[in-house]
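Morning!

This is the sequence you dropped in the shared folder:
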Amino acid sequence: MDSQVLLGVALSSIGGFSTSIGALFVIMSQAPSLKVLGLLQGFAAGLMLSISFFDLAHNALNTLGFLRGNLWFFAGVIFFAVVAKFIPEPTVTPPTSDDKITKKVGKEGKKDIMKKRRRQVLLSGVITAIGISLHNFPEGMAVYLGSMKGIRVGLNLALAIALHNIPEGVAVALPVYFATQSKWEAFKLASLSGFAEPLGVIIVACLFPTSLNPEILEGILGSVGGVMAFLTLHEMLPLAFEYAGQKQSVKAVFCGMAFMSASLYFLRMSLPEDM
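The structure's back. Tokens below.
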């Protein structure tokens, strides 16, 4: 393997590994209540909406123009809407207190309700992992392209990406840990979503050994933004509203958007002007 590719893989692994750090924060603490889980799901939804609209879709519109940028974006929305039809969705069960559940349905019914809740939360965690992996993949590309300009540029970019990947690891590991009660499963899925970054380096180096058409890349990233926007509004927000309430969840969403927007700002500050 070319030394430049090895450097890109090494640098992108820094950002990818930070999702594992986020997972460690989750598995080293106690399993959260449903309300806390809902708030953190809202925060994670804010992260993903910010990435989708303020980063991926924004760049596609600026690079490709309003019409083509929107076509790519909504192609991603339609694609994932079709995919979502084939994803089984557990029935949503309102988060009633344990005592009320026991009185209404008894101990056996309570177990069934909790199983349904855990399946729903697990599905949310898996879909979050898919969305974040799609986002991490182009980040790996960015680190590789930056490292081609110099190790300092690539290292600065990798460190900046690593900082805003930590909450992404939390967003993946938290629902998985809640649903499975397995620290290993939560850590594994979060780490795999971060592995998309060095994988992005390898794939782009193999497919485009000499150059990468910037318009095609921006179009694909715009579609990824559409995918992330759809899965956030379709899967993550309803779960947050159900468990934490609408008002509190909306606040959590905007906190997540503000956090990721600040992260993206510092990330852009580390990018070279011609990238």
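Headline: The two ends are 24 Å apart (CA to CA).

More detail when I'm at my desk.
O.
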